[in-house]
Specification:
Elements: E1 8-11, E2 14-22, H1 27-30, E3 35-39, E4 43-47, E5 53-59, E6 70-74, E7 81-86, H2 93-105, E8 120-125, E9 140-143, E10 149-150, H3 157-171, E11 175-179, E12 185-189
Antiparallel strand pairs: 1-2, 3-10, 3-11, 4-5, 4-8, 5-7, 6-7, 8-9, 11-12
């Protein structure tokens, strides 16, 4: 998974926050050319086409990547490299295994088989992941491809800010991800405004 650009330009004097200016290449969000979805606050994992699970991993400049690491993208500004490590060697292996086991053991309606996972990316959330901002009782995997759609009526800086902060306050939502029909994505987090 490549790093998703932030909808608004980061403040060069305070990179934790954004300015009311679209990041070049993300103007399509303000032009209402995509669909907003909920950004879940957990850790990203991936099931590849061969049935192998991977955990997203950032490697900071000067640090050694873990064994079997597959680099995906290098950020020249921060010096970080984003990539994947096998889930079995990640810090989230136990919680991922719990999420898989809980989904396969659950009493679901006939014809529903959550144990049949599709290749793609998922957000691992739960009590032991990032302080549980999603307020889950058990560890779960949420398919990014099936993320909850969000409505943002005012696509100005202030309108997006208001919608994102409202969602965060209401239920711990980390932010939003916009999906363009051509595959482009852009994100914004509540903490970008605070």
């Amino acid at each position: 998974m490549r790093k998703i650009p932030t909808v608004f330009v980061r403040d060069p004097d305070d990179r934790a926050h954004v300015l009311p200016e679209a990041t070049p290449g993300c103007e399509w969000v303000l032009a209402d050319e995509g669909q907003a979805t909920r950004k879940y606050d957990g850790t990203c994992v991936m099931l590849d086409g061969d049935g192998n699970w991977w955990a997203r991993r950032e490697v900071k400049p000067g640090k050694q990547p873990p064994a079997n690491y597959v680099a995906e993208q290098h950020d020249e500004v921060t010096g970080k490299t984003v990539g994947w490590e096998p889930i079995a060697q990640s810090a989230f292996a136990k919680f991922h295994a719990e999420a898989i086991a809980d989904a396969e053991d659950a009493d679901y309606p006939e014809g529903f088989n959550p144990g049949r996972w599709e290749a793609g990316t998922y957000e691992l959330v739960g009590p032991k992941v990032n302080g549980n901002p999603e307020r889950c009782e058990v560890h779960e995997l949420i398919a990014h491809a099936k993320a909850k759609w969000m409505t943002v009526r005012d696509l100005s800086f202030d309108g997006i800010r208001k919608a994102v902060l409202f969602a965060a306050e209401a239920d711990g939502c980390e932010g939003m991800v916009w999906h363009h029909p051509d595959g482009r994505m852009a994100k914004i987090k509540a903490r970008d405004f605070q």
